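Tokens help. Consider this.
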Amino acid sequence: MTRRPFAPSRRQRLAIAALLLGCSASSFALNTATIVASTLSPDCLEYRVTGICYWLYCTWTGCTVRTSVKVRHYIPDAVVSSYSNTGENPWVGVRAMSLPNPTAKAGGDGTTNEDHENNLAKFKNADVIGHPGGHVFSQFASASGYTCEGAGTAFMPYLLSTLDTLAWRYNIPEALYPEALIPGRREIGTRTAMNLWGNVYPRGGFLHQVDDHKAAAVVAQRAGDIVTRRNQIHVYQPLLASSRDGYWPAGALMETDAATGKWQELTPTLSSSCAVFPHGNAKVQARQGDYAWALWRPYSCCQRRGQVFLGSVDFL
């Protein structure tokens, strides 16, 4: 009698991935398997039925109106790394994409070399790379119902700061933008609430922030801000999808607004939930100034059930 090879069910595969997620939480090295397992997060997914779509379906005998459910959920489009030492992306598997080059060699913080003074400035490289967990995420999300398609392609580099030298290291031309010169515009947090993490503009690698974790988060937000917009004066490719009948993709990322995107910390600690910056969660400082987050973005869609899209109605 021959035995069949063991083939785990979908539920068993998800359980195995969840176990890997829990076991990897204490690991310092960020690898692809850990990132893939991190997609099993109901908090980040936030699946909801939001309305009804109407379609006109026609055959040679006549036309009828059909309906389908409209859903909304978040998708992990990209992994955004924010790290001090050029060429040392904490996601080990993609380091070769952003090695030092003649225009982007060193990294780290500025200092006065005086022990009693804080560093004058911090510098972070940033990479935005397509999230590798698409297959596992699709299996996980489909358990809730119909699912939408994200904009990200696995392992696709959308922004590598080592190739964006003029804008990233010299703040040209964004140092002269009103958002960079006028206090209170495009900031992460507020001065009145005493929780100001930093300014979005100029969207480069330098900022003044004594907390290294907060500095890395601000730089990650800057990188996400760039790739979710078109025609920016940076070397990058947009991480955006085009809308179509029955499909409403995520738009421009905005700081502090979860309706445009939220962040899941991957390293130095692995989180099973998502949040926006600023937040009050525990902030562990990375030993070598290297951090990474998964950027989850909201999408709405409904199943196509006819030739002509008539519109949709959202529940209150």
DSSP finds seven helices and twelve strands in the chain. Residues 1-27 have pLDDT under 50 and may be disordered. The two ends are 60 Å apart (CA to CA).
